């Protein structure tokens, strides 16, 4: 068992968590918070391994660190908004077996209680059905893009009481860049068209060109 644990801790996949080499993520976050000239900080998990639940563990650790800072009133004077992409991969997850199961609940807790400490979570997901309903219900404003899955639409309808059936009926027919904004500060669901970002800022989300390579 000891050898297995040592191999696990020293593996290349877990090096980003336990290695003393490289930069300290907590120090990077703290420096960003302490510098009033900085407006945004991007943490990419592009090179973090999926093996051993490394991505989930790392993100949960960062979330816990932010929540602890919030509880210590670090964001009392200058609130912080934390954007989490692909949230269904992280929120509401747990690791371990039936005997020893650990809930990775940091960002769920941030969504539920972070606002009173000046820490707000903004989550993005293509699979709202995989995000716990109690987390979705804590989100004040929703930007709803095209959803074709019945369970996804039902999840959004349950999580947001401001979305009526008529507005929900438009969700499957929304085009690329179109969305419906729903929230308590709006008298009715608001349809919007979101401007495409500049070419240099667009994410690399296009699939392969099958016609080009197979034609």
Low-confidence residue ranges: none
Strand order of the largest sheet: 5-6-7
What's the overall geometry?
globular
Report the radius of gyration as a whole number of Å: 20 Å
Can you give the mean pLDDT?
A: 86
In this structure, how is the largest beta sheet organized? 3 strands, antiparallel
Strand portion: 5-15%
Number of strands: 7
The ordered H/E elements are HHHHEEEHEHEHHEEH
Helix content class: 25-40%
Protein structure class: alpha+beta
Question: What count of domains describes the coordinates?
Answer: 2
Distance between the termini: 54 Å
Region (Disordered): 196-215
GO molecular function: ATP binding
Protein name: ATP-binding protein
InterPro entries: HerA-like (IPR008571), HerA_C (IPR033186), P-loop_NTPase (IPR027417)
Please give a structural write-up.
- With 215 residues, this protein is an alpha+beta fold.
- It has two domains: 1-139, no CATH class; 140-198, no CATH class.
- The protein has nine helices and seven strands.
- It has helices at 2-10, 15-18, 25-34, 54-71, 106-113, 133-136, 150-159, 165-168, 210-214, and strands at 80-84, 93-96, 101-104, 119-123, 142-144, 178-182, 190-193.
- It has a three-stranded antiparallel sheet with strand order 5-6-7, with no helix packed on it. Strands 1-4 form a two-stranded parallel sheet. A two-stranded antiparallel sheet has the order 2-3.
- Helix 4 (54-71) packs parallel to helix 5.
- It starts with a helix and ends with a helix.
- The model has no long low-confidence stretch (mean pLDDT 86).
- It comes from Brucella tritici.
- Residues 80-181 form the Helicase HerA-like C-terminal domain.
- It holds the Pfam family HerA_C.
């Amino acid at each position: 068992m000891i050898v297995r644990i040592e191999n696990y801790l020293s593996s290349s996949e877990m090096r980003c968590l336990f290695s003393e080499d490289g930069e300290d993520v907590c120090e990077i976050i703290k420096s960003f918070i302490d510098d009033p000239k900085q407006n945004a900080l991007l943490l990419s998990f592009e090179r973090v391994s999926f093996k051993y639940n490394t991505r989930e563990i790392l993100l949960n650790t960062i979330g816990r660190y932010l929540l602890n800072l919030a509880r210590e009133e670090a964001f009392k004077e200058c609130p912080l908004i934390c954007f989490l992409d692909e949230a269904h991969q992280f929120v509401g997850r747990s690791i371990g077996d039936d005997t020893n199961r650990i809930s990775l609940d940091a960002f769920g807790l941030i969504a539920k209680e972070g606002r009173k400490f000046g820490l707000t979570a903004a989550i993005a997901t293509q699979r709202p059905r995989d995000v716990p309903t109690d987390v979705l219900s804590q989100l004040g404003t929703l930007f709803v893009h095209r959803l074709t899955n019945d369970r996804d639409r039902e999840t959004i309808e349950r999580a947001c009481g401001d979305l009526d059936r008529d507005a929900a009926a438009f969700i499957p027919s929304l085009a690329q860049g179109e969305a419906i904004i729903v929230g308590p500060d709006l008298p009715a669901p608001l349809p919007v068209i979101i401007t495409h970002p500049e070419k240099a800022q667009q994410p690399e989300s296009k699939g392969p060109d099958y016609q080009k390579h197979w034609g």
